[in-house]
Amino acid sequence: MPDLRRIGEMRQTTRAFLGRCRVSKPVVGVVVLAVSELVTNAVVHGEGEVVLRITVAVDVVRVSVTDHNPAPAVLKEAGRDGESGRGIRLVDATSDAWESNGKETWCEFRDARAAV
What we know:
Blueprint: H1 5-20, H2 25-45, E1 51-56, E2 60-66, H3 87-94, E3 97-100, E4 104-110
Antiparallel strand pairs: 1-2, 2-4, 3-4
Helix pairs in contact: 1-2, 2-3
Protein backbone atom coordinates (compact mmCIF):
# COMPACT_ATOMS: atom_id res chain seq x y z
CA MET A 1 0.00 0.00 0.00
CA PRO A 2 1.55 3.37 -1.01
CA ASP A 3 2.30 5.75 1.86
CA LEU A 4 0.70 8.96 0.61
CA ARG A 5 1.83 10.88 3.72
CA ARG A 6 5.34 10.93 2.21
CA ILE A 7 4.12 13.32 -0.49
CA GLY A 8 3.22 16.07 1.98
CA GLU A 9 6.40 15.49 3.98
CA MET A 10 8.53 15.85 0.85
CA ARG A 11 6.68 19.04 -0.15
CA GLN A 12 7.33 20.59 3.28
CA THR A 13 10.98 19.55 3.27
CA THR A 14 11.43 20.97 -0.23
CA ARG A 15 9.87 24.32 0.69
CA ALA A 16 12.11 24.66 3.77
CA PHE A 17 15.28 23.63 1.92
CA LEU A 18 14.68 26.00 -1.00
CA GLY A 19 14.00 28.86 1.40
CA ARG A 20 17.36 28.28 3.10
CA CYS A 21 19.00 28.27 -0.36
CA ARG A 22 17.47 31.68 -1.17
CA VAL A 23 15.49 30.41 -4.13
CA SER A 24 12.95 33.01 -5.26
CA LYS A 25 9.42 32.50 -3.91
CA PRO A 26 7.77 32.11 -7.34
CA VAL A 27 10.27 29.40 -8.24
CA VAL A 28 9.77 27.70 -4.87
CA GLY A 29 6.06 27.42 -5.67
CA VAL A 30 6.54 25.69 -9.01
CA VAL A 31 9.32 23.45 -7.68
CA VAL A 32 7.09 22.33 -4.81
CA LEU A 33 4.33 21.61 -7.33
CA ALA A 34 6.74 19.52 -9.42
CA VAL A 35 7.96 17.64 -6.33
CA SER A 36 4.37 16.90 -5.41
CA GLU A 37 3.58 15.55 -8.88
CA LEU A 38 6.80 13.53 -9.32
CA VAL A 39 6.68 12.04 -5.83
CA THR A 40 2.98 11.20 -6.20
CA ASN A 41 3.74 9.48 -9.50
CA ALA A 42 6.55 7.46 -7.87
CA VAL A 43 4.54 6.56 -4.77
CA VAL A 44 1.43 5.52 -6.71
CA HIS A 45 2.99 3.95 -9.82
CA GLY A 46 6.57 3.21 -8.77
CA GLU A 47 8.16 0.28 -7.05
CA GLY A 48 10.27 0.16 -3.91
CA GLU A 49 11.80 3.10 -2.10
CA VAL A 50 11.13 6.61 -3.43
CA VAL A 51 14.12 8.95 -3.20
CA LEU A 52 13.92 12.71 -3.73
CA ARG A 53 17.06 14.70 -4.50
CA ILE A 54 17.12 18.46 -4.93
CA THR A 55 20.21 20.28 -6.13
CA VAL A 56 20.51 24.05 -6.08
CA ALA A 57 23.29 25.48 -8.25
CA VAL A 58 24.06 29.08 -9.15
CA ASP A 59 20.92 29.54 -11.23
CA VAL A 60 19.29 26.10 -11.51
CA VAL A 61 17.19 23.95 -9.23
CA ARG A 62 17.19 20.29 -10.26
CA VAL A 63 14.63 17.86 -8.85
CA SER A 64 15.22 14.13 -9.19
CA VAL A 65 12.85 11.40 -8.03
CA THR A 66 13.87 7.76 -8.24
CA ASP A 67 12.18 4.46 -7.54
CA HIS A 68 12.67 0.92 -8.82
CA ASN A 69 10.08 0.91 -11.61
CA PRO A 70 11.88 0.53 -14.97
CA ALA A 71 9.01 2.14 -16.93
CA PRO A 72 9.58 5.84 -17.70
CA ALA A 73 7.05 8.52 -16.84
CA VAL A 74 5.17 9.68 -19.94
CA LEU A 75 2.91 12.54 -20.95
CA LYS A 76 -0.69 11.34 -20.95
CA GLU A 77 -3.98 12.76 -22.06
CA ALA A 78 -6.20 12.78 -19.01
CA GLY A 79 -9.89 12.29 -19.58
CA ARG A 80 -12.11 15.25 -18.86
CA ASP A 81 -13.41 13.62 -15.69
CA GLY A 82 -10.22 11.66 -14.98
CA GLU A 83 -8.77 11.90 -11.48
CA SER A 84 -5.20 11.32 -12.63
CA GLY A 85 -2.93 11.69 -15.65
CA ARG A 86 -2.08 15.39 -15.38
CA GLY A 87 1.04 15.34 -13.20
CA ILE A 88 3.70 14.95 -15.86
CA ARG A 89 1.89 17.52 -18.00
CA LEU A 90 2.19 19.99 -15.11
CA VAL A 91 5.90 19.22 -14.78
CA ASP A 92 6.31 19.68 -18.53
CA ALA A 93 4.45 23.00 -18.47
CA THR A 94 6.24 24.51 -15.45
CA SER A 95 9.83 23.27 -15.76
CA ASP A 96 12.53 24.37 -18.18
CA ALA A 97 13.47 20.75 -18.93
CA TRP A 98 12.47 17.28 -17.78
CA GLU A 99 13.14 13.67 -18.67
CA SER A 100 12.42 10.17 -17.46
CA ASN A 101 14.51 7.09 -18.07
CA GLY A 102 12.43 4.78 -15.93
CA LYS A 103 14.03 4.65 -12.53
CA GLU A 104 14.68 8.40 -12.47
CA THR A 105 12.47 11.29 -13.47
CA TRP A 106 14.03 14.73 -13.21
CA CYS A 107 13.21 18.34 -14.01
CA GLU A 108 15.05 21.66 -13.90
CA PHE A 109 14.10 25.23 -13.14
CA ARG A 110 16.46 27.98 -14.30
CA ASP A 111 16.98 31.52 -12.96
CA ALA A 112 15.95 30.26 -9.56
CA ARG A 113 17.87 32.44 -7.12
CA ALA A 114 16.36 35.46 -5.46
CA ALA A 115 18.10 38.76 -6.14
CA VAL A 116 20.62 39.50 -3.38
